[in-house]
Amino acid sequence: MIKKYKIKKFRPINKGFTLIETLVAISIFTMSILALLSLLAQGISDTNYAKKKIIAAYLAQEGVEYIRNMRDTFVLYDPIDSQNGWNGFSNKLISNSCQNNNGCYFDDQNLDYTAQDRPMVLGLAVTACGASCPPLLYDSSLGKYGYTMGVNPGFTRKIAISQISSNEIKIFSTVYWTQGSGNYSLVFSESLFNWIE
Known about the structure:
Layout: H1 19-77, H2 82-95, E1 104-107, E2 125-128, E3 135-139, E4 144-146, E5 151-165, E6 168-179, E7 182-193
Helix pairs in contact: 1-2
């Protein structure tokens, strides 16, 4: 007996995505893209914060270094003696209101780097801040921060002192900046002594 095989015809099933399946797929894809964009934006924000914090740290350290250099110059180059130089140094900071809450700032624009007969830091202008210290301006042609030329990147530096004893002054160099919706500050401090007696 011969078996007869029945051949089935396969009809292609035209089944596509339903509207709901398509919307769910688009929603998942959109959420993953938004998550990546959010992560990227946070990374850029963190990088910019780190950059500004590094610049602020350098500016705060520069404030301490200038005041330390001023102290050394007053003490070493006073024509009478080191104690007279120390007194001149502390009086310069106190008389320019560095000791009050508003602090002071220094401008190194008029320093004469070519004069060899006298130290240049003696001519450092120290000025009371008043209600607030002026912003530091960045001069890209010199690669330097100052108060007269350049663009305002948003940094402000304040120098404050606390007289601990007749032979010790504590210096606080604070740099302020605003980024996004937040205000930030960074403080470096150092005790300066009358180290020559």
